[in-house]
Amino acid sequence: MREIILARIDDRLLHGQVVVKWIPHLEVDAVIVIDDELDNNPFLKKVTLTAAPNTIDARITSVDNFIKCYETVMGRTLLIAKTPQVFESLINQGVEIKRVVLGGMGSGDNRKSLYKSIHVSTEEMASLVKMADHHVEVDIQIIPDDKPKNILKI
Questions:
Q1: Is the pLDDT confidence value at 117 over 90?
Q2: Residue 106 and residue 68: Cα distance in Å, rounded?
Q3: How many CA atoms lie less than 13 Å away from 64 in the CB half-sphere?
Q4: Nearest alpha-carbon partner for 117 in 99, 132, 103, 134
Q5: Regarding the domain with residue range 2-153, which homologous superfamily does it belong to in the CATH classification?
Q6: How confident is the model over 61-79, as pLDDT tens digits?
Q7: How many CB atoms lie within 10 A of CB 55?
Q8: Is 113 exposed, middle or buried (0-12, 13-18, 19+ CB in 10 A)?
Q9: Where are the domains of the chain?
Q10: What's the pLDDT at 23?
Q11: DSSP states along 11-63
Q12: Measured between alpha carbons, how far is 84 from 72 in angstroms, rounded to an integer?
């Protein structure tokens, strides 16, 4: 049996905070990083996967290949992507995602501060609101110890 436990938006993808805090907290069996650019770069893909604990199934896939990849995963699964549009696309394809957490979205041109290290573009905010409108719980929660903050109540 497989289940998506959490979908995390973090522009750093798979890194120390995810490995040390989120993976043990969620007790996941698998992590799937969904990023087209990373999936097409064999060197960076290999380097990124070395960050994952060897006790879990860690994979990197493109948005287009996600469903095929996910069908072969077993157990509790954490999804990670850089942008909310990735998860919105998966939801539109029928993937059941119950909760999306914003963890790290950097600042830059045309990005507004939403909360601490969370900055969003107009398009990203629209995507987050669409997911929330489709009964997906969308929270800001940088680490598991933080109290979740619903994006519609900030």
A1: no
A2: 30
A3: 4
A4: 103
A5: Phosphotransferase system, sorbose subfamily IIB component (3.40.35.10)
A6: 999 999 999 999 999 999 9
A7: 9
A8: exposed
A9: 2-153
A10: 98
A11: TT-S-HHIIIIIHHHHT-SEEEEE-HHHHT-HHHHHHHHTTS-TTSEEEEE-T
A12: 24
How far apart, in whole angstroms, are the C-alpha atoms of residue 92 and residue 97? 10
Q: Which two tokens stand for residue 60?
A: 């990197």
* Token duo for residue 58: 């860690």
Distances (CA, A) of 70 to 11, 112, 114, 116: 21, 33, 31, 32
**pLDDT for the residue 154:** 81
State if pTM tops 0.90. yes
C-alpha distance from residue 44 to each of 49, 89, 126 (Å): 8, 24, 30
Q: What is the pLDDT of residues 94-108, one digit of tens each?
A: 999 999 999 999 999
Q: Which amino acid is at 69?
A: C
Contacts of residue 154, defined as CB under 8 A and 6 or more positions apart, other chains included, come to 114, 115, 140
Show the tokens assigned to 10.
Answer: 């973090």
